[in-house]
Amino acid sequence: MKKILLSCSAGMSTSLLVSKMKDVAEQQEISVQIEAVSSDNAFSMLNDYDVLLIGPQMRFMKRKFEKYIKDQSIDIPIDIIDTVAYGRIDGAGVLKQALNLIGD
To answer: Which residues form the PTS EIIB type-3 domain (predicted)?
Structure first.
């Protein structure tokens, strides 16, 4: 099972996106766990996930996450959620982005 973590300012704006991603994963029979959390909570959860996607409005946090994973020797890819996919609440597109980062 692949574990995908989404982070935004409060974890709320990505919750609908998570629902759409889960629907697509179920339709395509992809085994995933997807959760959306605030950026503050994401730091403590990185060891438990395979990829971190950050909401476009929080792109400034990418460097902080990259520094943190380097300092903590955590091996996890990090990227900004595609702005168009985020705006369209494109669950399929964001799921594909996450799985590509993981290597599937």
So the answer is: 1-104
